[in-house]
Amino acid sequence: MAPTNLASFIAVVSLGASLACLAAELAQTTTPQAKPAQAEGVLADRTLDWSADVLNSDFRSDTLDLAGNVRVQQGAMSIEAQAATGTDFRSNNSRWTFKGDVRIRTAQADLQANSASASFVNGQIADARVEGSPAQFEQRGDASEPRVRGRADVIDYDFTSGVVRLENEVWFSNGKDEFRGDVVIYNLREERVQINPGGRDGRVRGVIRPRETSPNTPPADAKTPRKDEKGA
Questions:
Q1: How far, in Å, CA of 200 to CA of 3, rounded?
Q2: Which tens digit of pLDDT belongs to each residue from 46-95?
Q3: Structure pTM?
Q4: Alpha-carbon span 202 to 205, nearest angstrom
Q5: CA distance 196 to 27
Q6: Which end of the chain, N or C, is less surrounded by CB atoms within 10 Å?
């Protein structure tokens, strides 16, 4: 091949390679990159918002003291109280205590108590313990349906599993029937309840109310008359 033709050939090949590289770069910049899938049950935004009348903070010990109309919120969860203290509050694993007219609201439950403590793991609220005389729990849902409610001296709420544990002087109701025991464990998601699991010293007591039936509804054991009995 003549030198002139060889040089022309090399120039064409180099130009083609450059154009191919340029096209690849343009494709990468114009094609939207797929976002990593968000783990189920993990908040996309783990921001913790709070407000209060008074703030005192020690940056060296990483503590935060809030007083007066305190409200802490993360996603659909909120905690209200008259006073709160957060330790390691700027880390992903912080610990909070609340005092005075405490109320915890989530998408699934509503709790009220005199005091409470809550822990955050990996930046997301993991569990809470409320105490009162008594502390109260209510499952949130359709207003037309009976509400699951409970009272006890101590109530533990596991946000991850959706399990509520009531202990000491427990009263529990599914909206109609009532139960009393030392310990009640209720799964909000599965709507399953255990009372005094494993056998405790105290006994379980309850009141079961039969379902209401319409006046025109025949008893379950009533027999339907045969054709030859009708009009006899």
A1: 99
A2: 788 999 999 999 989 999 999 999 999 999 999 999 999 999 988 999 99
A3: 0.70
A4: 9
A5: 63
A6: C
- Please state, in angstroms and as integers, the Cα–Cα distance from residue 76 to each residue in 12, 56, 139, following that order: 62, 26, 15
Beta strands in 106-145 (DSSP E): 109-121, 124-139
Residue 204's pLDDT is 85
β-partners of residue 90 are none
- 57-66's contacts with Cβ under 8 Å and 24+ in sequence apart are 61/87, 62/87, 62/88, 62/89, 62/90, 62/91, 63/87, 63/89, 64/89
Identity of the residue numbered 173: S
Half-sphere exposure of 157 (CA within 13 A, CB side): 31
Which token pair is 146? Answer: 């009976």
Q: How many whole angstroms separate alpha carbon 93 and alpha carbon 73?
A: 16
Residue count (the chain):
232
**What is the rounded distance in angstroms from the CA atom of residue 10 to the CA atom of residue 20?**
15
